[in-house]
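Q: I'm writing up a methods section and want to include an example of the input and output format. Could you take the sequence below and give the corresponding predicted structure tokens, formatted cleanly so I can copy it straight into the document?
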Amino acid sequence: MAVDVHVLCWIDVHSRGVFVLVDVPGTHRADAVRGLLGNSVDFDAIAAFYDALALGAFRALEDQGLVIPDDVDVVGFDDIEEARYSAPSLSTGRPTVQDPARRAVQFLLDRIDSNAIAEPARGCRAACTLELRESTGPASAAGSISAAVA
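A: Here is the clean output for your methods example:
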């Protein structure tokens, strides 16, 4: 089965890596990881762009007999409710909503005020909290870390 995996970045860690998994349109969430495993890609961790994608990675890893987090650490982003109740519970980034929403409205108002047909893209940093749970190490290491991300 050929799967077009969209890799945002690869972080080399002692000749193994962290695979950053982004959305793979038209495929099942677990298929992207199955494609990696089928190609003998050696990695220690998966960072998925959203929790449902990370939970799909759980399935593919477990189907291959890999144990999370003993063999592979998995982290998602967006802190859906299922992340707390999966087995193991999923470590995830919980984004703040108020600040990015306020900035988006301000960007929109600025654009309306400028009457510009096209403007260069703007970006902003938003705070998030990293919820460390069982999928990235022992449950006793669980906790929260706040950080700003691009």
